[in-house]
Known about the structure:
Helices cover 31% and strands 13% of the residues. It is an alpha/beta fold.
Amino acid sequence: IIWGGIMPTIMPNEIMEAYQIDGNVRQAGEIGAVEIANSYTNNTSIPNVESHIPAWEVLGDAINKEQTPYYHMIMSSRGCPFNCSFCYNQSLPGKGGGKWAMRPARTVIDEMEYLHELCGTTVFTFGDDNFLVDKERAIAILEYCKTKGWYIEECIGHINNVNEEL
Length: 166
């Protein structure tokens, strides 16, 4: 069992001990995750490991298409460009802002289309802390949803990223 994310990054030893996992992928884990996956297989590549769109279809019948409202959470960015003293980002190596990375609007929209086709999803939520940082990208995604009649259940951002247009 390999964990990744903020907790294994800032508290690796505590997480390993408390949850008895086999390893941690710290910081941005795409390369490390691929290396770990490749070490457990003779294959040199594993389908969907590096994909920007998760392979939701592997869940098969576990996807409850009858749930109402049926929604999917999408991670469209990670990190944060700000430097708030109270934030967990202050615990990361390199500390402070400037570590925000986003997926382009097109890949986010492609994932939404994929989920709509796979499951009929019309309700989405964005799990990233800073969906609103790039206003043009946020507007492109939200406008697309509006044209499709899709509902955004939640998106998170700093109030200083909100303007009249957004």
